[in-house]
Amino acid sequence: MAHDALLRVEGLTVDFQTSRGLARAVDDVSFSIKRGETLALAGETGCGKSVTARSILRLVPQPPGIYSAGSIYFQGIEESEPLDVLEASEHQVRALRGDRIAMVFQDPSKALNPALTIGRQLGEVFAEHREASVFESAGLGTRSRGASRYLRHRGGLVRRTAYRFTHPSATKRLTEALDERVLQALADTGVPNPRKVMTSYPHELSGGMKQRVMIAQALACDPDLLIADEPTTALDVTIQARILDLLSELQERKGTAILYITHDLSLVRQIADRLAVMYAGRIAEIGDCRDVLSAPLHPYTQGLMNAIPRAETKRGELAAIPGTVPVLIDAPRQCHFVSRCAWAGKACTTHIPGESHPLPDRLVSCLRFESAAAVGAAPGDMPQQYASAEVTT
Amino acid sequence: MQVRQYLIRRLMLLPLIMLGVSIIVFTLTRFTGSPVGIYATPNMTPDEVAALEARYRLDEPIPVQYAYWLGGVLRGDLGWSGVSVAPVTEVIGLKMTATLELALAAALIAILGGIALGTIAGVRRNRGPDHAARFFAIAGASTPTFWFGLLLLIPFYLWLDWFPLGRSTPEIFDSITHPTGLYTLDSLLNGNVSAFWDAIRHLILPAVVLAFGAMAIIVRMMRSSMVETMSEEYVDAARAKGLPEREVVKKHARRNAFVPTATVIGLSFGFLLQGAVAVELIFRWPGLGSWVTSAILSGDQATIMAYVLVTALIFMLVNLAVDIAYAYLDRRVVLGG
Amino acid sequence: MTAVMDGQSSSIDPNTDPRRSASSVRWARRLEVFREVLRNPLTVIGFVIIILFLLMAIFAPLLVGANEPDPYQSPRDWANIDVPPGEAGHVLGTDSTGGDVLYGIVWGSRLSLQLSLTVVISTLVIGTIVGSVAAMRGGRVDNFLMRIVDVFLAIPELIFALAIAAVLGPSFRNIILALAVVFWVKYARIIRGEIIRVKQTDYVAAAKVVGDSTWNVYRKDVLPNAITPMVVQATLDMGNVVLIGAALSYIGLAQAGLTEWGAMVSAGQSGILAGQWWVSTFAGLAILLWALAFNLVGDGLRDVLDPKTEGR
Asked: E strands, A173-289, where?
């Protein structure tokens, strides 16, 4: 494993138990993320990108979800061995969540608890992962169980009030230490008037502000990896730009790696170093972002790029990829894109494309890049092989 | 703040509604017999009866009669209770505290039990505890309270003799002072353990019977509300922060699940007040319920009407209290009319 | 270069196929809903119990011969009082006046049917009218009617019905009347809420733009949508009405000796202390089964018809 590979997903396969059968949401997905780099994971709704992202934190609920195969290796700094998130203990995974790997959700209105103040919600992260440090700044040497419980808002209202009554100065200092950290986290993300925001409830803030708060919460403990699940989809376009700027600024400052999930290819160019395109649960193409966008190799990616209207696109020429995403229950062993592919050959309906590397640092999963011999199919059944002179209009 | 405005508006609405209730009650009294029947005591002479009729202007048109009746009510004159052989206002205080004690005990059981069961059912959806909770909820909503009471009487009173009927053992009851009128509380305030035990022994069975139906409603609501909140994004977000599952359930999911359950709790109090009628009858509990049932059997109108007024008032106040709690729990609530 | 390769041709969804008439689509949908409802085993059990009770009520004179002159008074077998179940030709035993328990249960089902149908149908109608008027007129009319509803809701149902029945005099008919007076408010509120909600939707606005009269809009757009929660409530109320009605007769607001289940429980309760459990138990069981059946069906309907309240 390369020393600077932070995250390595290998052959991840996730199924879901539904009333109609076993649905495969993620099918043999592999990719890696280096420290400090931004990988965009793009694809249309339902392609499995969200499930992939959540699997990294093992957030997929286990019934009905099933981690059928694969591993997700995370290399923290202190550990010598990378940890397989899917095999780790509950305790280990919880230690990662919010601390080493953090997530920003799509809709900040839904991802923030409406019943708690921002300060409470951000404070939770610190109380869970930075307890020792908080106690230290509060000037409290020993961490009594009572104080720890107080910090984490456990034990019920009665107990907490009683504790506050009996330990007035300690609780005051703890609260201050915690608040300080929360304020710092908010200020770091450029939140104006952090103190007011801290005592506000989510519904009192604007959409853009809420997303800022979510980002502040995610970056609170300086995680190595930030998973951003379509963070700007629910926001206005004008706010979108600001959030994207914020993310790249923070990334530069803190060196965080980002896994950016999106369905909007036009955003990808601005923020990502590398781009991975997913379709129907599988990786179609991975490579350097600009390269993939300017010279897409996979038919799906090509279709997507064609569909983006440009200044030169004449009226009436809006190209869409014909067909729809297949339903993946008891799916046949074939390329899932075959029903919508302009190049499909008979072999595409009988073989699953493997990983090809037509260029250095480019991965494509398409039979156009494989030889008939390697696949084990008749040459006449293979799709038209890729010629490097091909240019997409 | 919007919340305060809403609560003030509700507070102002209360007397208006009670006025409406009083109109209904008054209309009912005009349905049978002589309207003076409410006020007449058995030994009155015809002259005294005539004097009563004059006092309450019973020869005047209806709206005037209503005004005088209402005036009397507000002054504390609710008529003469035939079954208690005393003015209604003298007796009603005692009856009310007895019923309140029973209802509060049942409410406590129903709310605590209901929330706990509902939470477990919602979190462990479609598994063992969930099916049990749903079965319990349906059973509770379908079981006639009076029958359930009889059913429990047989083993616990008849065979095992664990729990006695009635509210208290007279000697023990009389041995302590009664500042609040709630036997359990009073015995604690008196520091009298045997009195407290006496109170509990009498209270348990009727409270459990009464709580059954209400608990079923609360379990059902809490369960569905938990299922809904557990699938909310912020619950996943809390997990993504590394919080232990128990904390996620309690602090994030359940806290929000309380909100719709709060309204149900208010409604279930109405259920408790209704159920109290049969339960008090069966367990010989000296509260409003048994009072009104004897009144029905003897045609004592004053008692029945006073009962309706008092129960409605209690019910309204409880709902108001619930609304206050609701407003506190759900900050988001734009409390419209 | 983007050649169109259409892999499969999708079959036309029958629900949106423009060739079918609107009403046949609607009936097809209703059938689908019905089938969905029946998929839940508990709901099916509820249905079965209801049908059994229905048959029992309709064929009562055939099952146990009607008693003269009043079929709703149990025939008194004075030679066999307080007989336990199974003895002396009384399958479920007799009470302290020799009344046959089975007779009471069977004829009581008739009373329950009468009670629940009358109350539910009349309250549905009254509630719909009041609620619709309030919601469609709005303004002061709405305010006034809703205040009345608020007042009615301030008094718990049983207590209100109790007071009315007590004032009118103890009789089964008065119980029916009392319950009808009390129960209509729920429906008024439901339909008013639904109408207001639907009024604000776009398709109603579109209908108005097209020029549909208010009555037409009401009939075609508003009412069909509002029906769902009403149906659920009505089903549940079929059970609730009998529960409360039984409680009222238990307290003594029905005629003496009536073969009404609640009254039977009351009649049998003094016997319990002497160990004669069967009268109250079977009568109460009948009430429970009746309410259970309608609760199961009502819940099943709600799960299917109202997707907002969680399903399985």
From this structure: 225-229, 257-262, 274-279, 282-288
